[in-house]
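From the shared-data thread, chain only:
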Amino acid sequence: MLYKPDNFSTKDKNTCLKALTYILHLSPHNKLKKECMLLQLRRIGINEDKFDDSKSACSKETLINNLKNLDNIRAQRFIIREMIILAVSDKEVTDREILDIYEIAETIGISGEKVGDFFIWAAKGIEWMMEGIQLVEEDL
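Structure, as tokens:
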């Protein structure tokens, strides 16, 4: 079965919201990341009006426990992938973001190799977007 946001349970959505908010708080006052996060929430089916920064924030330990309590490895992987998308959305990934994502993923049983694959996938996406911008802008 293809795992997509339409398959998210309420628990999956709440955990995803906490995970994205956690990454957002690693680089506070980043307007681009907040905009990206709101787009991700819409795609997952979480109304952005319900997003409350203070209520959604949680510690790394709480996030790990929430992720461990999800019933589906696909949901866990999807959320880790979404965390990486948010981390790279401003094209600057901090060491803390990288280390925390690896630690969280490995603690819940997702291999470092799989996390590395997600980071490589995200880097390819950024490269692809930059090439698209160059195609539009070149020779003007």
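The chain has one domain: 10-137.
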